[in-house]
Amino acid sequence: MAIARERRRGIVKRTMEYFVQQLINGVTLGSIYGLIAIGYTMVYGIIGMINFAHGDIFMVGSFIALTVFMIMLALGVTALPLILLIVLIVAMIFTSAWGWTVERIAYRPLRGSFRLAPLITAIGMSIVLQNFVQLTQGARVKPLPPQIQGGITLMQGNTDTGAIVVQLSYMQIIIIATTVVLMAAFSTLIAKTELGRAQRACEQDAKMASLLGVNVDRTISLTFVMGAALAAVAGVMFLLYYGVIDFYIGFVAGVKAFTAAVLGGIGSLPGAMLGGLAIGLIETFWSGYFSVEYKDVAAFSILAITLIFLPSGLLGKPEVEKV
Amino acid sequence: MSDINQAGSAEEHQAPGALVEWEQRVAGYGGEPPFVEEPEYGSPIVLALKDAAIAAGIAAALFLFFIGFRTDINLGGLELTTRWQAFGISIVAVFVGRLAFRMLFWGSRQKGGRSLATRAIESRKGTPLSEHFARHSGKVGAFALAAAIVYPIVILWAFPLKDKQFIDLGILVLTYIMLGWGLNIVVGLAGLLDLGYVAFYAVGAYSFALFAQYFDVGFWFALPVAGLLAACWGIILGFPVLRLRGDYLAIVTLAFGEIIRIVLLNWYTFTGGPDGISGIPDPTFFGLAFARGDDNLPGLLGLKYDSAYKQAYFFYIILLLAMITNFVTMRLRKLPLGRAWEALREDEIACRSLGINTTNTKLTAFAIGAMFGGFAGSFFATRQGFISPESFTFMESALILAIVVLGGLGSQMGVVIASIVMIGGFELFRDLAEYRMLIFGLLMVIIMVWRPRGLIATRDPSAILKQRQSISADMVAQGEGH
């Protein structure tokens, strides 16, 4: 019996359909990582620090989303699109408040200090956020029944042991579409608006930017707010896609997203997205074809190997050493 | 940039004419550059109340979905409950806290605006505490060592009922001191940011545990082997990361730590996976065990058996190991190798152009730092008697790094003080079990904001010309991971 199942799995793994299904799953996961990774990469670009608490901001976002969802249900709102829209907007606003506060309390007083100081406060903030949520919301996992079901059948193949179906679920469509839209909006924001220009100016030279009339503190705060808002979107998507959250999800997702940001070249927005997709695909394919247990080892090893050959990541600019 | 902003706020408590001048200046620039924050107008009390109200408003936004509402698992799915009372109390607490903070500390906070040079000179004079440490660092160290040596004896004599608990705390603090000193070599001296130091701790612990399990060897034999193995892993990690800088280095070391942990967790047939390894033997004293029976050490000395004696023995072992770490580090700093580390931290390009082999310098730093981590791990295994991958998470690495940075990078005494404050403080709040980690995290943030350069703000120079002087921490590059 077990051998037969094993054999069937082996046959299924060799089909084209299995590959396509893994590809879809990988892109979905990669989109979530990419959204979080943008927060890391923007903060790194502008003040050159690793915001370790960012993963926990993502977790805070998914908790806010869950609570708002429950409030909506309690209020008797039944239209699912309306609920989702409200959940998304409220989660973005309130998570941004968290992002802003963390920056204000833990990073701004250390601006201009040496680089490890904000790293330590970031780790401290990460501990604070995790334990605050654990304390106020409990340590147990929170399940949310699947809200959006069904999907489109893309391919249907037959093996000698049975049929195999490739499905693109509506949830996956929503995640990928949201990510694409947000990425486009974001790139425009950075490239075209005054705020984006101020951000790029601060990234190049904060002192000069302030001499030219840019409010550097405000720009940095807004960068944190934007990063937190994107993390909140990722949190909502995570909640809806996996249906289970707890106070610890931020750490794992944060480390993965940070890996993605570094793999893509930290400081580069397209790099963060590309790194996110790469990490998502590596993880999914490794779990699909080899073993679930070692998927993280695969992701980290590929990061290390990539950095040996490309020390600034895939799309990062090599740092010029000046004497 | 901070200088300019602070210059604006510094004008605030000058004569009223300064405000007019400020306005004229802004008008002179055509309302644009350079950017300066507008000073606040009005009486201090009104301003403070306004500020506290804003803080309370933000707190309301932050706490609404966490304290105001709570979701719980119940029959038939999640259940939503409200806690308006707790929500209200938390907001009032923030309002009062912010008001008190502003009343008490606002004046001193606005004195900013000093340049880096002035701050360097000022901190060379130092605060009384750090100046004291700088001048008497030798005496303080000797006193601390003496205190540590008599600690178990005093505890055994004075607190016979709680002796095990107190000695255990001492062992824990000393373990972190040793780990902090080991990491200090990598981060503080060589300036390589390592976020995966716990990997070497794990390698040391598992080396001993596995040796004991498969070959039945004792602690004193396994200790050097564990250190050697950890050093080898340090070199293995060191090679691929030689070309990496700063945060790239940080993430690869973090990844390395996670890889080691995941492998230990999943290689069930060899390491026991999540079940860990138990029954790790205790160390012996020249072949004599600390156990019941007349043939064993307490029996031979004519003492009644008490497990606290074994604890005291553990305490002296870790004290010895920690002192070896400290001694080796201090001696290495005076050798060409140690000076090469510090030179590498200050400027890698200058090092290379002066003929220092940066590859070897970095690898030795990783290897020696890892070796001490391995020793500490080996000790951890024998003290616990049981190890599992759960003890070697990233949080542990972060804690060790926090101890090194909070103490003041590159300062040996700083690590001691930070370990006592953090670990001791952590144990102090044992009764507040739920709030303990929250307070711990807040403490990390507060200490860092209060003293960004660490608790000990001066550094001992490694080479002295004519006269001994302490150097301000501001003048030293701080392990920014070149």
Largest sheet of chain B: 2 strands, antiparallel
Low-confidence stretches of chain B: 1-15, 108-126
Mean of pLDDT of chain A: 87
User: What is the makeup of the main sheet of chain A?
Assistant: 2 strands, antiparallel
SSE run of chain B: HHHEEHHHHHHHHHEHHHHHEHHHEE
Structural class of chain A: mainly alpha
The CATH class label of the largest domain in chain B is: Mainly Alpha
**What is the total domain count of chain B?**
2
Rg for CA atoms of chain A: 21 Å
Q: Decide which structural class fits the backbone of chain B.
A: mainly alpha
Widest β-sheet, arrangement of strands of chain B = 1-2
β content of chain B, as a range? under 5%
C-alpha-based Rg of chain B, rounded: 27 Å
* CATH fold category name of the largest domain in chain B: ABC transporter involved in vitamin B12 uptake, BtuC
Plain-language structure description:
- Chain A is mainly alpha-helical and 323 residues long.
- Chain A has one domain.
- Chain A is built from twelve helices and four strands; from the N terminus they run H-H-H-H-H-E-E-E-H-H-H-H-E-H-H-H.
- Chain A has helices at 2-13, 16-47, 54-75, 80-107, 116-137, 170-192, 194-204, 206-211, 216-242, 249-264, 269-289, 295-309; strands at residues 142-143, 151-159, 162-169, 244-245.
- In chain A, the strands form two sheets. A two-stranded antiparallel ribbon of chain A has the order 1-4. A two-stranded antiparallel ribbon of chain A has the order 2-3.
- In chain A, a hairpin with a 2-residue loop joins strand 2 (151-159) and strand 3.
- In chain A, helix 2 (16-47) runs parallel beside helix 6.
- The longest helix of chain A is centred in the first third of the chain and has 32 residues, at 16-47.
- The mean pLDDT of chain A is 87.
- With 482 residues, chain B is mainly alpha-helical.
- Chain B has two domains: 2-113, no CATH class; 133-475, ABC transporter involved in vitamin B12 uptake, BtuC.
- Chain B contains 20 helices and six strands.
- Chain B has helices at 2-10, 17-28, 44-68, 84-109, 116-125, 128-135, 137-158, 163-189, 198-215, 219-241, 246-266, 268-271, 297-300, 307-334, 336-346, 348-353, 358-384, 394-407, 412-428, 433-450; strands at 69-74, 77-82, 277-278, 386-387, 458-459, 471-472.
- Chain B has a two-stranded antiparallel sheet with strand order 1-2. A two-stranded antiparallel sheet of chain B has the order 3-4. Chain B has a two-stranded antiparallel sheet with strand order 5-6.
- In chain B, helix 3 (44-68) runs antiparallel to helix 4, helix 9 (198-215) runs parallel beside helix 11 (246-266) and helix 9 crosses helix 17 (358-384).
- In chain B, 42% of the residues are buried.
- At the A-B interface, helix 3, helix 4, helix 5, strand 1 and helix 8 of A face helix 1, helix 3, strand 1, strand 2 and helix 11 of B.
